[in-house]
């Protein structure tokens, strides 16, 4: 049976990618209809009937808000931060003290606390509207209540349409030395200096649309997107962000969850008819045993959820490449499948590794024209960070537990059927198929970088080593002089 093949010019190749700041820690676009943190995994919840409409958190002022996991975000552990949000404050919010975003805590009226339960304490706030006689917006931080705020006032926002707000806070200069800057639509409104540090901010609550003051009304309007960075964006970056606007509904995106290994291909934009895909990983980071193919599962031979009128064919299913196509001339409609969400794996489809080298290419019909699309690739989970090289047990620290894993596999014959992604977790850090002295040097450099110069030597000196490992290390010179024996691995 012939397979549909297209020779496409470079002009027909569309690349879909989204740039992201290295400092971006948490991102809430609301484009999936939920309070999902697509970067840091700190997912929130909709409260009291809050809804998401057309990718925007929509609040009617009647108690609705989004609740974020304050402790998970841990903004008081930052020394610098930038908050970005796109807000549309309804005219009804005018003359009211509302907060579009707030981190902090409520007053503790318990015995001995000496606080007012109606007040907010130790907070950061982005306030689109103020009370009667205070027709302006405000961004502020405080290590007490309103009387101790360090803040900047801006223009009226209620009833003026969507506005881009950015607040930068820098507490890196030392204790009681913080600078706050407030931007509207990319323009600097003002800067204030004070003694209210990020470390002083309460870590009890984080809200979108709700105030830390018990008697304040709830925000009326919508929030299109909310971002949290662990650095201070420059004025140029803020201006560029304002110009670019919030993230629209995502186009074709391959999402890989570092924590679970789940792999999903999705599209939130206009319908796209996909008739082939190829996913590759040079290090062998794909797991065929945990992969659900389109063929026999999501096509006409399966449940038809992706392509109800065509039977697909799997042409490659290995650790380095998984490829599927709709065959030409199979009697089907030959129009591909409509890409919404295809879940290739709910667990283990991606093999945990410090190497994030997955690539994907799809072929699709765009306005009836065969086109090569290169979807965006998004890794999520693990706090928004890749795994560290030499973190062999993937717990985000390089310590004695990783040394034990490395020690137990050094100079040990590794299974030739394992891929580079798999052998890396056993100590083959340079991807040459063996764990030897060269890998030891890599591990030592990573261990000392994480724990201090000489840390691994101190650990090895304090922990008795198996005789085989000691003998192996003493024989390393001979091993290197005799040349490295390579082996050919198969990836199945």
Characteristic terms for this protein:
Jelly Rolls; eight-stranded antiparallel β-sheet; single chain; alpha+beta; 8 helices; 3 domains; disordered C terminus; ConA-like_dom_sf; LamG-like jellyroll fold domain-containing protein; seven-stranded mixed β-sheet; signal; 492 residues; flat; Immunoglobulin-like; disordered N terminus
Main β-sheet description: 8 strands, antiparallel
CATH architecture of the largest domain: Sandwich
For the record, the count of structural domains works out to 3
**Number of β-strand runs:** 26
Instruction: Report, as a whole number of angstroms, the end-to-end distance.
Output: 25 Å
Low-confidence stretches: 1-22, 464-468, 474-492
Descriptive report:
The chain folds into three domains: 24-244, Jelly Rolls (Sandwich); 251-382, Immunoglobulin-like (Sandwich); 400-481, no CATH class. The chain is built from eight helices and 26 strands. It has helices at 70-73, 235-244, 400-409, 420-424, 437-451, 455-462, 467-474, 476-481, and strands at residues 13-15, 24-28, 45-47, 51-53, 56-60, 65-68, 80-89, 101-106, 120-127, 137-141, 150-154, 162-170, 178-184, 187-194, 205-208, 220-229, 253-257, 263-266, 273-281, 313-317, 321-325, 337-338, 341-345, 358-366, 369-374, 376-380. The strands form four sheets. Strands 2, 4, 5, 7, 12, 13, 14 and 16 form an eight-stranded antiparallel beta sheet that branches. Strands 1, 19, 20, 21, 22, 24 and 25 form a seven-stranded mixed beta sheet that branches. It has a seven-stranded antiparallel beta sheet with strand order 3-6-15-8-9-10-11. Strand 12 (162-170) and strand 13 form a beta hairpin. The longest helix is centred in the C-terminal third of the chain and has 15 residues, at 437-451. It is flat.
């Amino acid at each position: 049976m012939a397979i549909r093949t297209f020779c496409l010019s470079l002009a027909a190749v569309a690349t879909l990618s989204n740039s992201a700041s290295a400092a971006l820690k948490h991102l809430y676009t609301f484009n999936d209809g939920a309070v999902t943190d697509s970067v840091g995994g700190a997912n929130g919840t909709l409260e009291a009937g809050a809804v998401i409409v057309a990718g925007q958190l929509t609040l009617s002022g009647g108690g609705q808000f989004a609740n974020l996991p304050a402790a998970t975000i841990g903004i008081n552990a930052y020394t610098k931060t930038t908050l970005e949000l796109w807000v549309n404050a309804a005219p009804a919010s005018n003359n009211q003290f509302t907060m579009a975003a707030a981190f902090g805590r409520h007053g503790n009226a318990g015995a001995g606390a000496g606080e007012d339960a109606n007040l907010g304490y130790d907070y950061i706030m982005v306030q689109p509207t103020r009370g009667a006689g205070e027709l302006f917006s405000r961004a502020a931080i405080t290590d007490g209540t309103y009387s101790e705020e360090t803040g900047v006032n801006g223009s009226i926002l209620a009833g003026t349409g969507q506005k881009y707000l950015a607040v930068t806070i820098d507490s890196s200069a030392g204790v009681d030395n913080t600078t706050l800057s407030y931007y509207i639509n990319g323009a600097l409104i003002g800067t204030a200096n004070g003694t209210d540090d990020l470390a002083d901010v309460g870590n009890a609550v984080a809200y979108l649309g709700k105030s830390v003051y018990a008697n304040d009304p709830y925000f009326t309007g919508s929030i299109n997107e909310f971002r949290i960075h662990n650095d201070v964006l420059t004025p140029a970056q803020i201006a560029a962000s304002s110009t670019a606007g919030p993230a629209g509904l995502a186009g074709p995106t391959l999402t890989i969850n570092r924590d679970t290994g789940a792999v999903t291909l999705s599209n939130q934009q206009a319908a796209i008819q996909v008739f082939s895909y190829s996913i590759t990983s040079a290090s062998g980071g794909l797991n065929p045993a945990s992969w659900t193919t389109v063929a026999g599962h999501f096509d006409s031979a399966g449940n038809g959820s992706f392509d109800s009128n065509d039977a697909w064919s799997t042409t490659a299913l290995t650790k380095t490449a998984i490829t599927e196509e709709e065959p030409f001339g199979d009697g089907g409609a030959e129009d591909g499948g409509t890409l919404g969400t295809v879940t290739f794996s709910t667990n283990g489809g991606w093999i945990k590794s410090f190497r994030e080298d997955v690539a994907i290419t799809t072929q699709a019909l765009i306005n009836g024209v065969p086109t090569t699309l290169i979807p965006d690739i998004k890794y999520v989970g693990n706090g928004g960070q890749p795994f560290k090289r030499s973190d062999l047990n993937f717990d985000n620290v390089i310590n004695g537990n990783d040394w034990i894993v490395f020690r137990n596999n050094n100079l040990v014959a590794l299974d030739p059927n394992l891929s580079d992604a798999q052998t890396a977790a056993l100590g083959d850090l340079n991807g040459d198929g063996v764990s030897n002295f060269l890998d030891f040097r890599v591990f030592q450099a990573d261990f000392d970088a994480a724990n201090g110069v000489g840390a691994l030597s101190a650990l090895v000196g304090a922990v008795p080593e198996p005789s085989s490992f000691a003998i192996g290390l003493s024989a390393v010179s001979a091993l290197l002089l005799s040349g490295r024996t390579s082996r050919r691995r198969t990836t199945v």
